[in-house]
Amino acid sequence: MAFLSSSSPTMQKGIFVSVPVLVLSVSFAAAVIFLLTSSLSSCSCPSSVSSPNDVVGSVSDVRLEERISTTREDIEWVRDLIRSNGLHMQKNELRKGINPRTRDQQLADLIQYKGISHYEGEEEANNHTALPCPGELLVEQHHSNYGEPWAGGRDVFEFLAQSSNLKPNSRVLEIGCGTLRVGLHFIRYLNPTHFHCLEKDELSLMAALRYELPSQGLLHKRPRILRGDDMEFSKFGLDTSYDLIYASAVFLHMPDKLVWTGLERLVKKLKPYDGRIFVSHNVKFCSRLGGDECAKKLASLGLEYLGKQTHDSLLFNHYEIWFGFRRVKP
């Protein structure tokens, strides 16, 4: 039986399909489609399109696994890079730059030329400066305000972050953050708004807010840095609790009575058991009580002394002493 037939000359080369062949063709096609469908449904291959939640989750996972400390492999890598560039690990006399200037000379230039401006006229120059910064900060004179190199701030951060098992979503309070020598590293590591600081010195606050945060690109982290010298922490929020509270070379400059007042207030803001308080250099505010009175007073506040720890510096010969405490009452 002809499916297509015609006496027309143009149709003489038509297609002739018998019914049995047509039925077999349809059956074969159905079998192939069934096999393909079954294969696809059982495939464990990942989808080529990720949902927004999947993308956010993967980014968060990477963020949580961010490494804090320098490893031995990191040190060997940079040593190899130093050697491969024809440099040396031993002490070197560093050559001056093409336009060597001391900090004092740089400051004199900033004052004389109004910020080394290439604009004509003071009004025009100021229009291009969103956050005018004092020259003393621009030449980083405040980096020399400490008894050790500025780079030591990174060492303190690594020690405290690891000792407290910090994660980016942890919350940290520093008492006396100064010019953010240590705080910058916490701010960079933690989630936005999770770093808090109480600082009394106006010049330190100027350096922190007008130079360090903007120049380090950390304004978006929105740290809460407040001025105060009264050990009053309610201004950070009544319900705020911290994973780490630390004071670097601060308590030794304060009256013992004020230190104890501060500790009494801090206990209520420290997370029980896992939260940590670290105090550097010494705890004479405690040892001056004599005998077992220090332990008794700590216990009455709900604090437990965890002992003394030290850490070394990566870049210079130095170590620092820290005294740890934790909250033992819910």
Kindly provide the radius of gyration, computed on alpha-carbon positions and rounded to a whole number of angstroms: 34 Å
CATH superfamily of the domain at 146-327: Vaccinia Virus protein VP39
Q: How do the strands of the widest beta sheet line up side by side?
A: 3-2-1-4-5-7-6
Number of helices: 12
Description:
With about 325 residues, the chain is α/β, with parallel strands linked by helices. Helices cover about 40% and strands about 10% of the residues. It is built from 12 helices and 7 strands. A 7-stranded mixed sheet has the order 3-2-1-4-5-7-6. The longest helix has 24 residues, at about 20-40. The radius of gyration is 34 Å and the shape is globular.
Topology:
Elements lengths: L18 H24 L9 H13 L7 H13 L18 H10 L9 H5 L8 H4 L13 H12 L8 E4 L7 H7 L5 E5 L2 H14 L8 E4 L16 E4 L8 H12 L8 E5 L3 H4 L5 H9 L1 E10 L6 E9 L3
Parallel strand pairs: 1-2, 1-4, 2-3, 4-5
Antiparallel strand pairs: 5-7, 6-7
Helix pairs in contact: 7-8
Protein name: Methyltransferase type 12 domain-containing protein
InterPro entries: Methyltransf_12, SAM-dependent_MTases_sf
Organism: Brassica campestris (Field mustard)
Name its key features.
alpha/beta, Methyltransf_12, seven-stranded mixed sheet, about 325 residues, Rossmann fold, about 40% helix
Please provide a brief summary of the model:
This is Methyltransferase type 12 domain-containing protein. By secondary structure, the chain is α/β, with parallel strands linked by helices.
